[in-house]
Each structure stands twice: as structure tokens, then as C-alpha cells.
Amino acid sequence: MSKEKFIIQKLHTSSKRDYLKRMNNNKAKCMNVSQKFDKNYWDGDKKYGYGGYRYIKDRWKPVANKIIKKYNLKNNSCILDVGCGKGYLLYEIKKILPNIKFFGIDVSKYAKKKAHKEVEKNIKIVNASNKYPFKKKHFDLVISINTLHNFEINDLKKSLSEISRVGKKSYIVVESFRNNIELFNLQCWALTCKSFFSKDEWKWIFKEFKYLGDFEFIYFK
Ligand SMILES: C[S@@+](CC[C@H](N)C(=O)[O-])C[C@H]1O[C@@H](n2cnc3c(N)ncnc32)[C@H](O)[C@@H]1O
Questions:
Q1: Regarding predicted confidence, which is higher, 115 or 15?
Q2: Per the confidence metrics, is the pTM higher than 0.90?
Q3: Ligand 1 centroid vs 107 CA: distance in angstroms?
Q4: In this structure, which residue's CA is closest to atom 4 in ligand 1?
């Protein structure tokens, strides 16, 4: 049974964001650069994305701990992170459960190159809206944080179906809004988002696309 979770809220709200500055900074052109998910997106100027996405010790630890607890992960579990980026969450989970089996998939060769060595070797460059190179129900848990809203709706359908196919359980996080202020802020901030849906629309989509896993929304207040 699909459930809304509240795992990543604290980490998401800990970052300060100047919405209007981004909107007024040649945003449409910047989006073309950001959507390559290359060096500029991760470690270039803030107008293209993260503005320097470095490993900060323990930043992902509370999220890793919550996921481990809620999904009862053990050293013999097997997990997949869809859109894992530089793999920091996987690294943090592996620090707590050193023998866990894991994979990440992502389109960004740059992000993979920047991952910790022990994680990098398990990151596959795969477009997450194509078929995943894993068997049915291979993973105890499939995680996907802040990735799926980057797809247009047809690709979103394919990725949700692949996540359900390869995972026994899943937990995904997407950007959303509950009112016009949050919609406005999201539209100002988002450089790579293609699926702008309210919380209720997302829930409708999950049902319509037969996604039965867990989900969480982040908002831009
Ligand atoms: C906002 S970042 C989130 C990264 C990571 N999950 C995190 O929370 O740190 C979005 C991620 O989605 C990846 N991505 C975007 N489009 C993708 C696609 N079609 N297939 C796989 N990964 C994709 C990007 O390269 C990037 O790593």
C-alpha cells in the first residue's frame, strides 16, 4: 500500500533559496545548460544548478538512517538509487551497512566520475526512463530522490513502471506545490523540472500509472 513519507523534509528546507534572483538571471538559457546534467549543473555557477555539490560529512546521514529503519534494510539487502547523482546517499547507507548490495543509475557521466570510488563502480549510466538492466523484483528497495519530476509525463510513466518492476518496495521524492506561492517559487527555481504537478495531481498520476510504492513531496515555501 502506497504511503506518503516525511524523510527528506529537514534536508530540503535547510537550504536557503533566492527564487527571484534565479528567475531574473537569464533563466531560460541557463536551463539549456542545466539540463545536460554536466559539470556546470553540479559544480558550475549557481545559476546552472547546485553551484558546487560537494560531499559534506554526515549531511545525508539522518536520511540514510531513516531509510534504513523504515525499510528495515540489513547488510544482506539489495538497493537501487534511480538518479543517484554523485551517489552520496548510497555512500552514507554503505557506511552504516558496509555489506549492503547496491547500484545507482544516472545519466550524468560527470556525477559518476565525482562519486566516491567504492560507489562509483556500482553506478551505471542509464537513462531512467528506459528499461533498467535488472531483473524483476531484484531489489528490496528502489529509491529515487528529486529525479522523476525531470521527466515529461510519457517518460515518467515508463520510469515508474520500471521502478515497480525491479523493486519489491520503493520510495520516491518529487517536487510539487500546494498553492500558488509554492507553484510560483517552484517555477522560479526549477531549471530541470518538466513535470510541474500539484500534490493531488501526483497522487492521481501514481494511481493512474499503477505506482504502488511510497512517495514524498518537496515544496518551495
Ligand atoms: C536533483 S538531482 C538529484 C541527485 C540525487 N538523487 C540527490 O538527491 O543528490 C537529479 C538527478 O537526476 C539525474 N537525471 C536526470 N535525468 C535523468 C535520466 N533521464 N535518467 C537518469 N538520471 C537522470 C541527474 O543527473 C541528477 O543526478
A1: 115
A2: yes
A3: 7
A4: 85
Percent of the chain scoring above 90 in pLDDT: 98
* Strand order from edge to edge, sheet including 214-218: 123-125, 101-106, 78-82, 139-145, 167-175, 214-218
| Within-domain flag for 182 | yes
CA of 87 to the centre of ligand 1 (A): 10
Tell me, what CATH number does 28's domain have? 3.40.50.150
Question: Do the domain assignments include residue 30?
Answer: yes
Task: Indicate whether residue 111 lines ligand 1 (CB < 6 A).
Answer: yes
Is any atom of ligand 1 closer than 6 Å to the C-beta of 156? no
Average pLDDT on 29-56 reads 97
d(CA 66, CA 6): 10
The tally of domains found in the chain comes to 1
Nearest atom (ligand 1) to Cα of 49: 1
Residue 139's DSSP bridge partners are 167
52, part of any domain: no
**Ligand 1 atom showing the smallest separation from residue 127 Cα:** 20
Q: In terms of residue numbers, what domain contains 69?
A: 9-40+57-218
Nearest-10 crossing angle of helices 153-166, 199-208: 60
Q: Is residue 3 part of a domain?
A: no
Decide whether any atom of ligand 1 lies within 6 Å of the 104 Cβ: no
**For the residues 77-105, what does the mean pLDDT come to?**
98
- Angle between helix axes 88-96 and 61-70 (nearest 10 degrees) is 60
The protein residue whose alpha carbon is closest to atom 25 in ligand 1 is 108
